[in-house]
């Protein structure tokens, strides 16, 4: 309840928190502080959030500090429900 109220207040101030996991790594909004399972040949994904980042409509205030990993395309298809 308190967290939801804080997020609404931040949104009113045009301040948004970056804290999504399992999304493609984007160096404009993420800062990779560690990498795990980097032997795969798939896309680099955000595995864990160490410290959330903040952005406004004008740009990034602080990038999110994240742990990244590479997944194999076959593993990504299994988790996304793709039957191929």
Word description of this protein:
With 84 residues, the protein is α+β, with helices and mostly antiparallel strands. It has a single domain, classed as Head domain of nucleotide exchange factor GrpE (Nucleotide Exchange Factor Grpe, Chain A, domain 2, Roll). The chain contains two helices and six strands. The strands form two sheets. Strands 1-4-5 form a three-stranded antiparallel sheet. A three-stranded mixed sheet has the order 2-6-3, with no helix packed on it. Strand 4 (53-56) and strand 5 (59-62) form a beta hairpin. The chain is elongated and about 40 Å long. The relative contact order is 0.24. Residues 80-84 have low confidence and may be disordered.
CATH topology description: Nucleotide Exchange Factor Grpe, Chain A, domain 2
Helix-strand makeup class: alpha+beta
Summed up, the helix count is 2
Which strand-content bin applies to the residues? 35-45%
- Shape, please? elongated
The CATH architecture can be given as Roll
Widest sheet, order of strands? 1-4-5
What percentage of residues falls in helices of 4 or more residues? 10-25%
């Amino acid at each position: 309840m308190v967290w939801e109220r804080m997020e609404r207040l931040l949104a009113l101030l045009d301040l948004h928190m970056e804290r999504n996991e399992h999304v493609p790594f984007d160096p404009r909004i993420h800062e990779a502080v560690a990498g795990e399972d980097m032997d795969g040949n798939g896309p680099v994904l955000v595995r864990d959030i160490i410290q959330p980042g903040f952005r406004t409509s004008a740009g990034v205030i602080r990038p999110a500090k994240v742990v990244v990993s590479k997944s194999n395309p076959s593993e990504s298809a299994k988790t996304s429900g793709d039957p191929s």
